[in-house]
Each structure stands twice: as structure tokens, then as C-alpha cells.
């Protein structure tokens, strides 16, 4: 390992693999190392099922679970927004050639009171037929949706009576006469905000998020979400292949991986097995950064194996369900992500429903009770609590660029923001989707 690299990437989680692929494509000399023998890190898919039972200390799975090798269980389940950033990264980088996706069949939101889940209404027709609202609220909501969908940011004539550059989202809700319940599912199940701070911020970000949801829905029909066959573990491997094609070097099962710095605190290389590879920058997950990260909270996740679809989802083979914080007197939303045998991640007739939320008490599993109560009979549960870490500094001086831990959300938008932020801090420029596509095409033509 006496070569010198532009950047060494430590960890094969999805964020690190995407960055490795993008940096290799942009001409950087990349060495990618991991202490594990497998790809995916925290975001791996576990197969066979016996390995999952072993990981959680639960012995062997019963025969009723079918063949162990039919299972690919995501440790951190998330859906892809059909028109979102990760799909754009996949398309522009050409990684889609290694993957096959299925559309998620249902997108639901929970409302207290009736203790029911409802399909997220996003079209004008659904606004009038939803059971989430009363008759007059439906009309007001339909009017609001029509306004959002008609907005062209560059054309003030489409903005109506609202100055979208100045108005807060709360002022927009008030303008249309929408009640708190409607604001709740709009902000959390459509715009996918994680808390209510957005209400006091400019409405433009929320408008863009609702439009992204609508545009994603328009691409594939039933919901805005996609999910890869054989699980999310396919994603890091796809970007790892991309990196390798463009000269990236991979070394798995490398112990220690100690980062070295010079007297000014700048990265100089990475040591493993008594050998040191030199580099001018390191990108890594928090597990490799030691004292360079701070703990900012925890996430609790519960992987549930079911023998039936989630009740009240019209027997959907896959769905996302969001429980907005205010509906269950919390500060954080609760998420449910359900996939099944239809996605080659479970044996025939079996479903995987994974519940997650940000920990707020000293009894994390109890915090998932509102979600678990909606699942019906559960064959087996696997509960885990993970610490959330963020880098202490941005890395522009030390050249150590650390990703943040995966949050409780069941979509990839926050993950992609972190990836693009690291890319910008390392390269000094915004990521250009079209430029990557052009670079790939140029190499393909040579």
C-alpha cells in the first residue's frame, strides 16, 4: 500500500459507496477500504435469515419462515423518491443498469381520534374523496393543492395573492384556512419534514417538496416511492462497481484502518495491517472517525416479520406509513416501511415491516407502540437502538470528511443531502448531475 491516492474512503455504507463512485468518475484516484468482509456497512441487507436471528441472539428461525436464503433484510430500510436525488444519481451515473426497481404500492398517514390510517391525498380528486377531512376542509385543501401544482417560481402571476419569497408556511396554511390536522399530514407525509420548525420558515421549500412528491407520483402511479429488488444492499454494490470501472481500488476485511494526520491536523494517510496508504483526503462514516464526531441522539428500529399485509392498506405488497408527531403527542414522527416476497426480500407469503423513530425517552421500544399496534399479529420482532453521530467540523481544513449517521426517515432525501454536502466540501463545487452523465458518456465512447 505504498501508493498515494487523492482520497481514501473508509466504510462501504451507501453514502461512502456513492461518494467513491462519483469521485472516481470525476477523475480522482480512490482507495476504498472497510473493516467488514461485506458491502453496505450500517445500511447492509442481511442474508440468509439465519444470520439475522444470530445477529440479534435469537437462535435459529422456525421452519415456518421458509428458506433462509430467500430473505434479504435491510437494517436501515428506506424507499427512493421516484423523482428524488438518489434516483437522479442512479440515472446520471448509469448505476441503474445493475438494479431493478418496483413501485411501492401504498403511501399512508395516521390520524388520531379514529385511530386509523388513510391514503395520503395528493391529487385534486383524492383531496375531495379522502376520509382524512370533513367536506369543507376537503374543498379548501383541493384549492391549496391546485395553487401548489400551478406555481412556477419564475412567474409571479402563478403565485396568486401570496409572496412565496417572503411568506412562511404557516401563513400559507392560514391563507387557505387549513386546520392543524391538514397541516400535519401535508408537512409530514407529503413534504416529509421531520418537525414543525418548517412552519415558521419560507414556504418555498415546502412547495418544492410537495411538488417533488407529486412529480414522483406522476412517474410511476400508485405512490412516489421505489424499492430495489433484493433489498437496499444492492445500492452500495452498484456504486462500488461504478467506482471500480473508473479505477477505484477496493480492499475489504481490513482491520483497524487508523487515520494519520500531520502536525497541522491535516490528513496524510490511513494505516492498516502495519501498512500505510498515503492520501490528501479521507471520506468515512462516523465509526472510523473516533473523537472527530459527536453524539446527537438515537434511533430505535424494530424489524417485524408478518404473515400478512399491513391491515387497512388494501392488501398492499409494500407501503410506507408515517405517523406525524402531533398525532401521538411526540416531538418526532414514527415511520413504517413495509416490503415483501414481491421484492425478493422475504419467503413466499411473508412481509417485512420496519418501524423507526428518533428516541425521546428511556424506553425506546415503547415509543414504537403506535406503529406496532397498526401491524396486526407479528411473527417475530428484532429491536435495535443506534446512536446518531455528526462530524464536529466540516473537514475543509483537516481534509477528513465524515458522514452523518442514517436518521429514522424511511426515504433517502436526507441521505442524499449529506452526500452532496460532503461532495461540495471536498471538491469545492456543487455536484452537477449532467456533468457526471457527460463524463460517463465520454469514457463509454472512448
UniProtKB/TrEMBL annotation:
It comes from the Eukaryota. Keywords: Cytoplasm, GTPase activation. GO terms for biological process: protein transport; small GTPase-mediated signal transduction; vesicle-mediated transport. GO terms for cellular component: cytosol; Golgi apparatus. It is found in: Cytoplasm; Golgi apparatus, trans-Golgi network. The keyword Cytoplasm applies. Pfam families: GDI. Belongs to the Rab GDI family. This is Rab GDP dissociation inhibitor.
Amino acid at each position: 500500500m505504498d501508493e498515494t491516492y487523492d482520497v481514501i474512503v473508509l466504510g462501504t455504507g451507501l453514502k461512502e459507496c456513492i461518494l467513491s463512485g462519483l469521485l472516481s468518475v470525476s477523475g480522482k484516484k480512490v482507495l476504498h477500504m472497510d473493516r467488514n468482509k461485506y458491502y453496505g456497512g450500517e445500511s447492509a441487507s442481511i442474508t440468509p435469515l439465519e444470520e439475522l436471528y444470530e445477529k440479534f441472539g435469537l437462535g435459529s428461525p422456525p421452519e415456518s419462515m421458509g428458506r433462509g436464503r430467500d430473505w434479504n433484510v435491510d437494517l436501515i430500510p428506506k424507499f427512493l423518491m421516484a423523482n428524488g436525488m438518489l434516483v437522479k444519481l442512479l440515472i446520471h451515473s448509469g448505476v441503474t443498469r445493475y438494479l431493478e426497481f418496483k413501485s411501492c404500492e401504498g403511501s399512508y398517514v395516521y390520524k388520531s381520534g379514529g385511530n386509523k390510517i388513510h391514503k395520503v391525498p395528493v391529487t385534486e380528486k383524492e383531496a375531495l374523496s379522502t376520509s382524512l377531512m370533513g367536506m369543507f376542509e376537503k374543498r379548501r385543501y383541493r384549492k391549496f393543492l391546485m395553487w401548489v401544482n400551478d406555481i412556477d417560481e419564475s412567474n409571479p402571476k402563478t403565485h396568486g395573492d401570496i409572496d412565496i419569497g417572503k411568506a412562511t408556511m404557516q401563513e400559507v396554511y392560514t391563507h387557505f384556512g387549513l386546520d392543524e390536522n391538514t397541516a400535519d399530514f401535508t408537512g409530514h407525509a407529503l413534504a416529509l419534514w421531520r418537525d414543525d420548525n418548517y412552519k415558521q420558515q419560507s414556504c418555498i421549500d415546502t412547495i418544492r417538496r410537495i411538488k417533488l412528491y407529486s412529480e414522483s407520483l406522476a412517474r410511476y402511479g400508485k405512490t412516489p416511492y421505489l424499492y430495489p429488488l433484493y433489498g437496499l444492499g444492492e445500492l452500495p454494490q452498484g456504486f462500488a462497481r461504478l467506482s471500480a470501472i473508473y479505477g477505484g481500488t477496493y480492499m475489504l476485511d481490513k482491520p483497524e484502518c487508523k487515520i494519520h494526520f500531520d502536525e497541522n491536523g491535516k490528513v496524510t494517510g490511513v494505516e492498516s495491517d502495519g501498512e500505510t496508504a498515503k492520501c490528501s483526503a479521507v471520506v468515512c462514516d462516523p465509526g472510523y472517525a473516533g473523537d472527530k464526531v459527536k453524539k446527537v441522539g438515537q434511533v430505535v428500529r424494530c424489524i417485524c416479520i408478518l404473515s400478512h399485509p399491513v391491515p387497512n392498506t388494501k392488501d398492499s405488497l409494500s407501503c410506507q406509513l408515517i405517523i406525524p408527531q402531533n398525532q401521538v403527542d411526540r416531538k418526532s414522527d414514527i415511520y413504517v416501511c413495509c416490503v415483501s416476497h414481491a421484492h425478493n426480500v422475504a419467503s413466499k407469503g411473508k412481509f417485512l415491516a420496519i418501524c423507526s423513530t428518533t428516541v425521546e425517552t428511556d424506553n425506546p421500544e415503547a415509543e414504537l407502540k403506535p406503529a406496532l399496534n397498526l401491524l396486526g399479529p407479528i411473527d417475530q420482532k428484532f429491536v435495535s437502538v443506534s446512536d446518531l453521530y455528526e462530524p464536529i467540523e466540516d473537514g475543509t481544513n483537516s481534509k477528513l470528511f465524515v458522514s452523518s449517521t442514517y436518521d429514522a426517515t424511511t426515504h433517502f432525501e436526507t441521505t442524499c443531502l449529506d452526500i452532496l454536502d460532503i461532495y461540495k466540501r471536498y471538491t469545492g463545487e456543487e455536484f452537477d448531475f449532467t456533468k457526471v452523465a457527460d463524463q460517463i458518456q465520454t469514457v463509454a465512447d472512448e
